[in-house]
DNA sequence: CTCATTTATGCTCAATCTGAGCATTGTGCC
DNA sequence: GGCACAATGCTCAGATTGAGCATAAATGAG
């Protein structure tokens, strides 16, 4: 098992060679054409065959800092400067690791990284995938996701499927809180909680047999599975990012040097999974002073040409570094 | 080095026995009489003698989940139900671990826990300490901390102490961003960034020699040191908690079953380190529906008796689970 | 060339939300 | 009784928000 100088070996199967080893996982996010993408790799699955997963590998003590090591590795893989890197969470569940053959604990330290360009040059087995392929119920941009009809039915059945009235009540409460069932609102940040609920309810194939019930495994409804519980990591990343853009100007790390306000809006919408009121969005960006105009305007596209703007890096040094408040509109179909 | 059944051994020196081991660290927070406290223990210092630190110990694979294991351990130690547990961060800097004798990487997974009662029964070497003893510049409740005068002077000297004009500019920018120097505002959430800046500037004794400069080490100014870079963990916890109370009703985990609105306000102020406008605070709590009145009122204290209220647990199931927006007032001296 | 379509941009308006205070009401204490 | 100290009620102006209306400036179909 010789490795190069990389701490993380992306293309390789990431079955942990040493059960007590610590691993790194990265959710590397880009946004192109208004779609949110995550870098995925093909890994050796638990069963035979290969399956999709996130870039991951064992932690090697090459760099003085976890983040520094991750940064260097990702930048080499994606040929892109990392605009933003954030530690997400350290997962240590023995029952969710995928391989718990050894009795020893193994940890995965997960990171979120935002990149501007999406050339994945070199990396043969890696590809950028729309992240909603894995979590279809999270995309409300075209209105309520159709996947939710089936999901809700299955969840209600799951909640009602227990004889214990107290447990049933608790399950129903969780449904209301996470999926907005029973009059609650959809909170776009509760991505992880929704995934975990589906997992418990047996709707996630990765849970194979761990939770008694078995439900629909239609990929169009419950999304494409990933190896090693990596969908949980992805869900964590999306939820975190959706929260972050509201109070920190991190979206700009995904944008090209100059862009139009509408492109910016599309990107924010892609991340948050909801549509925004256009005029109010520009007003927000304007008064926060997040961007400055360039001389150029777009051309060739449909509609009136838009002015190109660029991110005002100075805002990072100003006030409580603002982001975007998200307020869904009814612009959807 | 026999240990009990506890994954974390609090009273014991936590010099990692195996340099590749993963450790847990916990910031256990309580609030009594309007003061924020953290549970501390005495540990064997890097040099001779004992010094203060946070409860920590090696991770043992006893529980299926990291959080579950930490929860069980803390509850046993503090004799209190943990209201809230949150993973903070995983620290992996080789140059900050305190002992980096072995070449291997060692990680510390840090957790934040909130407890209601503060009986630390049993635990001989543990004690609750006002967390501002370790970070005196973070407490603005009695007005601008006097410690800041000296700190600012030292920081300005540090920033100006480099010949490279670009580096100097960057340092000054960071001073403005974190400490509000040069016209910026004080952002109470940037606790960690402030600590790290002081660390870099050589004002933190724990940095002994790692950063060239050596500055004031007056404890009243730069706070009481901790072993193993645990002050960084504490700073992370405080910053995180200060952010959290603004949008999640976590303060209530620190309150007794019933309390007055003013006690609640005192607790929020203790955590955030800033004073709030009283009338607006109650208005906020009222319209958010965070509490419900009880029959009882206080007596024996100075001033008009206050109505006792209790937390409405139902809000956890309602809307985007609100917290407190903090807006400092000028009530301070 | 003209019109329908599409996107960009400017502006308005009412409903809230916020930050700051003023005023009044109860209690324990001297 | 008069004070000091809290608890509560209410007001008010300014800023923020959520929703639209209206207009301008391109492209592409016919």
Written account of the structure:
- The structure is a homodimer of 333-residue chains.
- Chain A contains 8 helices and 10 strands.
- The first copy, chain A, has 333 residues and is of the alpha+beta class.
- Chain A has 3 domains: 22-133, Nucleoside Triphosphate Pyrophosphohydrolase (Alpha-Beta Complex), CATH 3.90.79; 143-220, no CATH class; 250-317, Winged helix-like DNA-binding domain superfamily/Winged helix DNA-binding domain (Arc Repressor Mutant, subunit A, Orthogonal Bundle), CATH 1.10.10.
- In chain A, the strands form 2 sheets. In chain A, strands 1, 2, 3, 4, 5, 6 and 7 form a 7-stranded mixed β-sheet that branches.
- In chain A, a hairpin with a 2-residue loop joins β1 and β2.
- In chain A, α2 packs antiparallel against α3, α3 packs antiparallel against α4 (191-200) and α4 packs antiparallel against α6.
- Chain A is globular and about 65 Å long.
- The interface between A and B is medium-sized, with 31 and 31 residues.
- The structure holds a DNA duplex (30 and 30 nucleotides).
Brief description of this entry?
Two copies of one chain form a homodimer. Chain A is an alpha+beta fold and 333 residues long.
Structural class label of chain A: alpha+beta
CATH class of the largest domain in chain A: Alpha Beta
The chain pair forming the largest interface, with residue counts per chain, is:
A-B, 31 and 31 residues
Compute the number of structural domains of chain A: 3
- Mean pLDDT over the residues of chain A: 82
Major β-sheet profile of chain A? 7 strands, mixed
Q: Name the beta content range of chain A.
A: 15-25%
Number of helices of chain A: 8
According to CATH, what is the topology of the largest domain in chain A? Nucleoside Triphosphate Pyrophosphohydrolase
Architecture of the largest domain in chain A, according to CATH? Alpha-Beta Complex
Shape of chain A: globular
Relevant CATH superfamily of the largest domain in chain A: Nucleoside Triphosphate Pyrophosphohydrolase
- Low-confidence runs of chain A (pLDDT<50, min 5 residues)? 1-19, 100-105, 209-214
Count the E strands of chain A: 10
- The share of residues in helices of chain A is 25-40%
Over the alpha carbons, how many angstroms does the gyration radius of chain A reach?
21 Å
Taken in chain order, the helices and strands of chain A follow as EEEEHEEEHHHHHEHHEE
Oligomerization = homodimer
What's the N-to-C terminus distance of chain A? 52 Å
């Amino acid at each position: 098992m010789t490795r190069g100088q990389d701490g993380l070996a992306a293309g390789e199967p990431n079955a942990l060679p040493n059960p007590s080893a610590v691993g790194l996982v990265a959710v590397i996010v880009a946004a192109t054409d208004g779609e949110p993408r995550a870098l995925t790799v093909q890994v050796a699955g638990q069963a035979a065959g290969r399956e999709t997963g996130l870039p991951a590998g064992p932690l090697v003590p090459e760099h003085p800092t976890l983040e520094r090591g991750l940064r260097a590795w990702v930048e080499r893989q994606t040929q892109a400067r990392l605009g933003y890197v954030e530690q997400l969470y350290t997962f240590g569940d023995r029952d969710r690791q995928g391989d718990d053959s050894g009795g020893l604990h193994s940890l995965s330290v997960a990171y979120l990284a935002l990149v501007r360009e999406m050339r994945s040059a070199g990396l043969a087995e890696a590809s950028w995938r729309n992240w909603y392929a894995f979590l279809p119920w999270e995309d409300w941009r075209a209105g309520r996701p159709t996947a939710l009809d089936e999901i809700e039915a299955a969840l209600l059945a799951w909640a009602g499927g227990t004889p214990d009235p107290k447990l049933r009540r608790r399950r129903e409460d969780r449904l209301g809180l996470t999926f907005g069932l029973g009059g609650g609102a959809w909170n776009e940040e509760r991505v992880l909680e929704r995934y975990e609920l589906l997992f418990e309810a047996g709707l996630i194939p990765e849970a194979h047999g761990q939770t008694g019930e078995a439900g629909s495994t239609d990929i169009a409804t419950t999304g494409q599975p990933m190896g090693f519980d990596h969908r949980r990591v992805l869900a964590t990343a999306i939820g975190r990012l959706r929260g972050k853009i509201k109070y920190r100007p991190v979206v700009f790390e995904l944008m090209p040097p100059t862009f139009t306000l509408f492109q910016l809006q599309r990107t924010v919408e892609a991340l948050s999974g909801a549509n925004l009121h256009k005029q109010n969005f520009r007003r927000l960006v304007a008064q926060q002073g997040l961007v400055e105009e360039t001389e150029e305007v777009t051309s060739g596209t449909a509609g009136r040409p838009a002015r190109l703007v660029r991110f005002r890096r100075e805002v990072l040094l100003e006030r409580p570094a603002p982001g975007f408040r998200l307020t869904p509109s009814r612009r959807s179909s």
